[in-house]
Amino acid sequence: MGLFSKDIKTFDDLFVHQLQDVYYAEQQLIKALPTMAEKATNKELKQGLLDHLEQTRGHVQRLEQVFKMHNAQQKGVTCPAIDGIIKEANETMGEVENKEVLDAALINAAQAAEHYEITRYGTLVAWAKRLGRNDCAALLQQTLDEEKTCDQKLTKLAEGTINVRAA
Amino acid sequence: MGLFSKDIKTFDDLFVHQLQDVYYAEQQLIKALPTMAEKATNKELKQGLLDHLEQTRGHVQRLEQVFKMHNAQQKGVTCPAIDGIIKEANETMGEVENKEVLDAALINAAQAAEHYEITRYGTLVAWAKRLGRNDCAALLQQTLDEEKTCDQKLTKLAEGTINVRAA
């Protein structure tokens, strides 16, 4: 996408642009999650992050299916939002000394990424339906549901264990 | 916060750091929302963004109250996440030609910012309670509730009007 060209002409273009943005975001998360899991001390958090890594790989495959179904170019476009979320996670992690506090910071960072994906997939589902692509919407909805479930699990883990130990 | 020092030593430091991060984020939104409102074509969306600008000013004041109550340094720390979300919004807006499609892109951008705040305030409320600061938690909860209501309104507007016109 050129910054100074008007590459998005139709609602369909916007949908495809957003798909490509999320495709990039998921790929960045695949790179970031192993480091986060490595830094986590709490076993449940470590495992949760590794499980989410596996799930994220599935989200990438699902996006590739949507690209194919919609006959859209399968590529990632740089997504400054996820780059910023990951940059912030790395910066904050670098500043935390105590392991229990670091776990709390890690879960906060993971939830920021989750929420980013929840908003984007929520939009993508709505847009797909509006474009008459209920087939694409159904696939994207599966990912959305998984992201929401993951966020709820992280909240439960944070409130039940991680924050208690950090405080 | 120094990038190479370990400035966050306790859970309380992490809480204050997150407060300062959100304080910066709200201020960036105060700068970004007027441009977004100006670019919006749909009257309801334009008004919604302006209303949210007012609400955001209230969130800043509420954070200043929390800084005071918690005896923490009232300052913003650069938040690459919101910077990325705003940068992405500006880039996408610059690429959209059609006004109705631009409205859909604007609402998508606003919801990404909302969700960022929802996740951060959600964490702040949980952390404040864990630190025994139910007074701070109650104030932060008010903002969280407003962010959630705003997000729901935007979803309703997107699905009921904006996406229909864009498609």
Q: How does this structure look, described?
A:
Two copies of one chain form a homodimer. By secondary structure, chain A is mainly alpha-helical. Chain A has one domain: Ferritin (Up-down Bundle), CATH 1.20.1260. Chain A has five helices and no strands. The longest helix of chain A has 33 residues. The N and C termini of chain A lie far apart (45 Å). The mean pLDDT of chain A is 93. Chains A and B meet through helix 1, helix 3, helix 4 and helix 5 of A and helix 1, helix 3, helix 4 and helix 5 of B.
Mean pLDDT of chain A: 93
Unreliable spans of chain A are: none
- Number of domains in the coordinates of chain A? 1
State the helical fraction of chain A.
Answer: over 70%
- Total of helices of chain A: 5
Question: In oligomeric terms, what are we looking at?
Answer: homodimer
CATH topology (fold) name of chain A: Ferritin
CATH level 1 name of chain A:
Mainly Alpha
Any descriptors?
mainly alpha, elongated, 0% strand, 5 helices, 167 residues, Ferritin, homodimer
Map the helices and strands.
The structure is a homodimer of 167-residue chains.
Chain A: H1 11-39, H2 43-69, H3 80-95, H4 99-130, H5 134-166
Helix pairs in contact in A: 1-2, 1-3, 1-4, 2-5, 3-4, 4-5
Give a quick summary of the entry.
The structure is a homodimer of 167-residue chains. Chain A is mostly helical and 167 residues long. Chain A has helices spanning 11-39, 43-69, 80-95, 99-130, 134-166.
